[in-house]
Design a protein that fits this description.
Strands 1-2-3-4 form a four-stranded antiparallel beta sheet. Helix content is about 10%, strand content about 45%. It contains one helix and four strands, in the order αββββ.
């Protein structure tokens, strides 16, 4: 195929803040046939909790293996009874942005 990007197979997972590293696998596990590996931790912002921005390598497992880079925004809620909750706000394909 022409004009398609080939993503580096050797992108190493990055280190995430401990709380986010613990929550990340549970957030992406329900996304069937897609694997996400955080490769760049970009930062955070305080907005009624915390938003985290990551660049992830996304691998589609079915019907064929293909990979791309995505920007992933994850929200951590303000703690209620000492517990924070996490959810994915957005996943945006970076390969189509110019």
């Amino acid at each position: 195929m022409t004009a398609n990007w080939t993503i580096n197979d050797y992108l190493d997972p990055c280190n995430l803040p401990q709380n986010l590293a613990s929550a990340f696998p549970g957030l992406v596990e329900p996304l069937i046939d897609i694997g996400y590996t955080p490769v760049l931790y970009c930062g955070y912002q305080f907005v009624n909790g915390i938003n985290y921005m990551l660049i992830c390598k996304r691998v589609t497992l079915a019907p064929c293996f293909s990979s791309t880079l995505v920007k992933c925004i994850i929200h951590e809620s303000l703690p209620v009874h000492g517990l924070s909750h996490y959810h994915i706000l957005s996943i945006e394909d970076l390969m189509g942005i110019y």
